[in-house]
Amino acid sequence: MVSIENITVEFGGFTLLDRISFVPNKNERVAPVGKNGADKSTLLKITAGLQQPTHGTISLPKEVSVGYLSQQMKLSDSRTVKEKASMAYDHLQKMEQKPGELHTEMAVRTDCESEAYHNIIERATDLQELLQMSGIHNVEAEMAATEKELPTPEGASDAELLQKYPEAKAKPDRVMNNWERLTLEPEKFTH
């Protein structure tokens, strides 16, 4: 059972949260509600284990996990939107290498009649079928189709974007694609 007991948070001589306690029932959803600055996020961070209270305890059973999505997005890499979107296919791209490895293994084996050899054939066949059903061979086409559907920033030329964002590392005479435009100025994209 989740238990929040007497949570107090003090900061710089101010009491932000004062003896907050509650025990949500199983399958109950709880949402802190209050005006801006009421420290709802602080309570959530404490519950998620990202911040410690000045006083009080949080008890969570081992099988309970708490997810927390920050209000401020922290961008820590310089990948484009297209590169980030293609990460959704990473597991398939890794899987795509496995049949080749299995075929190489079959080529060097001499026990073609053994059960182990037939198991390798079966695994390779199953992987090929799974990859075929997954659409891995159409990933580039799907990404290109999605890119064509992306709107373009209102009123911004490629040259203007490149001047404003030199980190794009593109030549001014090169036409940027919509993935790059969305990465540079996502707030200007409208649907």
Helix-strand layout with pairing:
Layout: E1 3-11, E2 14-22, H1 40-47, E3 55-59, H2 81-86, H3 90-108, H4 115-134, H5 139-149, H6 158-164, H7 178-184
Antiparallel strand pairs: 1-2, 1-3
Helix pairs in contact: 3-4
Question: What does this entry look like structurally?
Answer:
It is a single chain. 41% of the residues lie in helices and 12% in strands. The chain is of the alpha+beta class. The chain has three domains: 3-59, no CATH class; 81-139; 150-188, no CATH class. Strands 2-1-3 form a three-stranded antiparallel β-sheet. A hairpin with a 2-residue loop joins strand 1 (3-11) and strand 2 (14-22). The longest helix is centred in the middle third of the chain and has 20 residues, at 115-134. The protein starts with a strand and ends in a 7-residue tail after the last helix. The relative contact order is 0.10.
